[in-house]
Amino acid sequence: MTGRIPEALRLALDAIADLKGSDLVVLDLRGLTDATDFFVIASGTSDAHVRGIAESVMEKLDRKGHHTHHVEGLNGGRWVLLDFVDFVVHLFHPETRSFYQLERLWGDAPELLISST
Fold this sequence. Notes:
With 117 residues, this protein is α+β, with helices and mostly antiparallel strands. It has one domain (7-105): 2-Layer Sandwich (Beta Polymerase, domain 2). 34% of the residues lie in helices and 23% in strands. It has four helices and five strands. Strand 3 (70-72) and strand 4 form a beta hairpin. Helix 1 runs antiparallel to helix 2.
């Protein structure tokens, strides 16, 4: 990606990577919807793993003053949605991710190439 990504988004990506979230995708929704700027999509290996990643993302961002606006699915762990207003994190159990196919639904959104720095 050219340019810098917002600090809060970078923190979320780092938190996901730290807990070994897989198949990480960032969709750039700017110009496609007014709801948010980015979708972050990643998978965990189990419901507990998905919950753990979500809790880590919230904790790391909260420490830096970036609070979730809305959280859904944390108790179940099949699909956890973390809304930070400027971006939304979707954490999935692999079967649930395959069923909903958000990447396909938002196929017109460019995918950001995120360097691991």
